[in-house]
């Protein structure tokens, strides 16, 4: 990719602009009626809670069209603990609330992935994250995962080589557990109006594994 300076950006010479032009010509124009209808309303069937990682693209891996997924992405695909009050700004919690109560989604997916930088950061020294105070605070939501993994390593049930993937997978389980503390989520599951799934995306193999609650393990979707 060629280097772009500010002058080039103002003149419309930017790789992202090229992508927009291709979208208009190859996607929008051939499906103009679809987008015009989509511009009036949305009816997503699934809330996708994923990592902000640039390699995780929800619509790509699920082969869904615009309007099907209601998406929130953050570092390490974390779900904040449920809070009844609203005295703080909680973007992910607001998305969950809106998707379930307003959009009436039928599914929620919490999707983790391989080579997750957020999960890896759990094992870094605080000094290494001194310039990332907001990131460090955010990752506190995954500290129970780190503690559980370190306990497993102390008991020699997993090796150092297995730590990354085990952490990433257990983080999905932990965040699904957080989600189950939202009373309106639990209520809709009880009523049969909502399903909640934990996924693990192995990027280098193009595999999606789902967490089987009964077997308590991840199983590859085939």
TrEMBL record:
GO biological process assignments: carbon utilization
Pfam families found in the cross-reference section: Pro_CA
Annotated transmembrane regions: none
EC number: 4.2.1.1
Positions of Zn(2+) binding: 51, 53, 113, 116
Molecular function in Gene Ontology: carbonate dehydratase activity; zinc ion binding
Keywords: Lyase, Metal-binding, Zinc
Catalytic activity reported: hydrogencarbonate + H(+) = CO2 + H2O
Essential cofactor(s): Zn(2+)
Superkingdom of origin organism: Bacteria
Cofactor: how and how many bound: Binds 1 zinc ion per subunit.
InterPro entries membership: Beta_CA_cladeB, Carbonic_anhydrase, Carbonic_anhydrase_CS, Carbonic_anhydrase_sf
Function as written in the Swiss-Prot or TrEMBL entry: Reversible hydration of carbon dioxide.
Family named by the database record: Belongs to the beta-class carbonic anhydrase family.
Name under which the protein is recorded: Carbonic anhydrase
Originating organism: Petrimonas mucosa
Lineage: Bacteria, Pseudomonadati, Bacteroidota, Bacteroidia, Bacteroidales
Gene: cynT
């Amino acid at each position: 990719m060629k280097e772009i300076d500010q002058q080039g950006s103002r003149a419309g010479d930017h790789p992202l602009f090229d992508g927009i032009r291709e979208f208009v010509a190859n996607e929008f124009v051939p499906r103009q009626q679809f987008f015009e209808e989509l511009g009036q309303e949305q009816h997503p069937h699934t809330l996708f809670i994923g990592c902000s990682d640039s390699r995780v693209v929800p619509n790509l891996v699920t082969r869904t069209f615009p309007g099907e997924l209601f998406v929130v992405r953050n570092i390490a695909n974390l779900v904040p603990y449920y809070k009844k009050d609203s005295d703080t700004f909680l973007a992910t919690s607001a998305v969950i609330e809106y998707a379930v109560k307003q959009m009436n989604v039928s599914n929620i997916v919490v999707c983790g992935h391989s080579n997750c930088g957020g999960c890896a950061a759990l094992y870094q020294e605080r000094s290494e994250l001194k310039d990332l105070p907001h990131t460090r605070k955010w990752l506190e939501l995954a500290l129970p995962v780190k503690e559980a993994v370190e306990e497993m390593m102390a008991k020699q049930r997993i090796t150092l080589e297995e730590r990354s993937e085990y952490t990433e997978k257990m983080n999905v389980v932990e965040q699904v557990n957080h989600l189950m503390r939202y009373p309106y989520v639990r209520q809709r599951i009880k009523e049969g109006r909502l399903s909640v799934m934990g996924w693990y995306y192995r990027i280098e193999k193009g595999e999606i594994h789902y967490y089987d609650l009964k077997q308590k393990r991840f199983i590859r979707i085939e």
